[in-house]
Amino acid sequence: MAFKLADRVKETTTTTGTGNIALGGAITNFETFSANLSNSDTTYYAIVDNTNGAFEVGLGTYNSSGNTLSRSVIASSNSNSAVNLGVGTKEVFITAIADKIVMEDGSNNVSIGGTVTATAFSGSGAGLTGVDVVSDTTPQLGGDLDAQNKDIENVGLVESKAEAGIYGSSSSPVEFTVTVASKTSGHPYPSGGSSSGNAYFINGIESPAITLHGVDSTTSNSEYHYRFTLSSSDMTSHPFRLYLDAAKTTPYTTGVTTTSTYLQIAVTKDTPKILYYQCSSHGYMGNYAIVLGSTNFADGNITNVGDISLDSISPDGTDINVAVSDNSATAFTIKQGSDNYLVVDTGNSGESVAIGTGVSGTAVSIGHSTSETTVNDNLTVTGDLTVNGTTTTVNSTTLTVDDPIITLGGDTAPGSDDNKDRGVEFRYHTGSAAKVGFFGFDDDTGKFTFIPDATNNSEVFSGSAGTVVANLEGNVTATTISLGGSNLTTTATLSTGISNGNVLVATSGVVDNDFLRVDGTSVEGRSASEVADDIGAATKGFATAMAIAL
């Protein structure tokens, strides 16, 4: 893993949301990220969403297996938070961020906010100045650093002498000198609640982190003693005390002796891993102490301790809270080997497992944007369900929908004709071949149609119309009516008389059965040839014959 910058690296992306950026290929005359970065390399990136008028710059980590770029935002159009990228094509490229560029000012000075790392330092100046590292005025360099039995100070950390073989006893404890002075901006709680505006200084350092040594295998001692000495006036005005939290909600007094001029503690294996030294009268004057060799965390926090190996975590009746800072790496991972798992187990079937946030309206994302997420149990959605993918497949054998109206074609009416049909496509097998059927609205004809053997071409169906079996009410309009049975049955009354507009027309080609002729008030039987003669020999004044097939 390394930090890299490269020229002319620009790709497209169609990523939406606030997750990792899926790289979509280089823009013409530019190079890809993969051609310049290796897996886990970091670089400064910028992404521009012209469609939605948004931008973002930050520190990205390249993932070669997924060809993606993680996002740690430095500045953005979304109040310097991750931009919720919308639909459409965006551009993402490597850039040099202005706040991260080191340049000479008008006086040829260079200022940085972090650590300078180099193989060697050289220059024409007299030396490296302004670095107060040791109290010894003649440090020896050239090999190992020889502090000449002096303490390294002014680095924000006070270390007890246990590692040097000095273990405090009750009568001769390791001693820290505590004074009180005004807070500076370098205090761990620069704006915290000290009403006096003061801070503790230990061995001349403003509220440093302290390390204390508990029982270990170095000696046979069962406890080690440490004394924090204050002047009587400071101790009276700013009583020095130990707590299990920085806010002083829980004092710690086990093995602690307090007088008018000092506080002394006996550290054992049962002393909490983290203690906080604070003024009992004013808030946030001090900092914390790490107890090495202790096996008891009590109710204190675990801060900056690296890896922790545990066999189990046992509850004590309170919530188990894991607070994870937001950073460019994976925030919280539970892992077995190379695989990631998160298993929440309960022996009570009446209990539930909640995955979400404590803040209403906060979005919860499950799964990677390109991964598959499987729910193995019954799933109940109490809110609205929105599916934004391109395909929704329901493989259940029974589907129940309470909504009496099913809407096809979108949640709003189209603004123009998309030339697509609307209806239901169904699949079946005739016993010899698989078929696709369609029942719905034909956009081309503007009519409803049924096609038992249909072809679907981009939601436009074609094929021969099929037969619909139904009892019909109301008016029936058709170009042609074909009767498959032997009878036409009706209970309706013919309200109109016989006229040129509604007389039965027959041709010799279809006259092949027995007929009845209605002539005035009489009805007589007629053969096919007779009917043909009647039709052909009809003259003016001759009663029009209507033949009805028996």
Could you characterize what this model shows?
- The protein is mostly beta strands and 550 residues long.
- It is 3% helix and 24% strand.
- Among the domains are: 10-100; 157-292, Immunoglobulin-like (Sandwich); 422-462, no CATH class; 500-550, no CATH class.
- It is built from two helices and 28 strands.
- The strands form seven sheets. Strands 1, 2, 3, 4, 5, 6 and 7 form a seven-stranded antiparallel sheet that branches.
- Mean pLDDT is 78; it is low at 147-156, 505-512 and 539-550.
Largest sheet: 7 strands, antiparallel
Helix content: under 10%
Gyration radius (Cα, Å) is 44 Å
CATH fold field value of the domain at 157-292: Immunoglobulin-like
Average pLDDT taken over every residue: 78
**Count of runs of 4 or more consecutive helical residues:** 2
Global morphology: elongated
